[in-house]
């Protein structure tokens, strides 16, 4: 049995404003007061694990212990088939210290030169942790293909080069609600809600 989240306040253990926006949207139907790690000035822990779930749990646990409140972390990334899953857990790092995703998308395009397979997936691991160290972990993914040059300005990160299966527009060309209906984050979130949130 998963542990039920019954508090009134949840710390979002992320410093990524794109994730904060999306997770706040996904949490909107629940009466939860959400505060981000950035707003609480919590430190950004180094991501030393080798899996999405490992890094999500590391971030959630650090924020739960530092704040004394339950914390939700998201570790996610783009996994490109022809690049053996890269950038994967290194998705943020490909954007460099300035977090410039035009550089990261350019690198993906360059590394794909001479390869024909453009299939990729986004993966999202969510970890909900309590100050006593208890963790509940979930993972979702969405499959698609990459397009160049980047298109659209609605999402964040690698959204401008990712077209989900069955669609012709990139995540960055879609309205947020359309992305939420199918995204890796929404799929992980649905599992989290089913397991840990009472209706
Ligand atoms: P936090 O660790 O503070 O949450 P981060 O940006 O460093 O922020 P990650 O380590 O999980 O987060 O890096 C994942 C990167 O993958 C992220 O910076 C995005 O650029 C990319 N990414 C994840 N989800 C995405 C999405 O829905 N659309 C586009 N890019 C996404």
In angstroms, what separates the terminal alpha carbons?
A: 16 Å
Q: If classified by CATH, what would the architecture be?
A: Alpha-Beta Complex
Q: How many β strands by DSSP? A: 6
The number of helical elements comes to 5
Task: Indicate the CATH class.
Answer: Alpha Beta
Q: What name is given to the CATH topology?
A: Maf protein
Task: Describe it.
It is a single chain. The chain is α/β, with parallel strands linked by helices and 199 residues long. The protein has a single domain, classed as Alpha-Beta Complex (Maf protein), CATH 3.90.950.10. The chain is 28% helix and 22% strand. Helix 1 links the parallel strand 1 and strand 2. The longest helix has 16 residues. The mean pLDDT is 96.
Features:
single chain; 199 residues; alpha/beta; Maf protein; six-stranded mixed sheet; 5 helices; binds inosine 5'-triphosphate
Topology:
Blueprint: E1 9-12, H1 17-27, E2 33-36, H2 52-67, E3 71-80, H3 101-111, E4 119-129, E5 135-146, E6 162-164, H4 176-180, H5 184-196
Parallel strand pairs: 1-2, 1-3
Antiparallel strand pairs: 3-4, 4-5, 5-6
This protein binds inosine 5'-triphosphate (ITT).
Task: Put the structure in a nutshell.
With 199 residues, this protein is of the alpha/beta class.
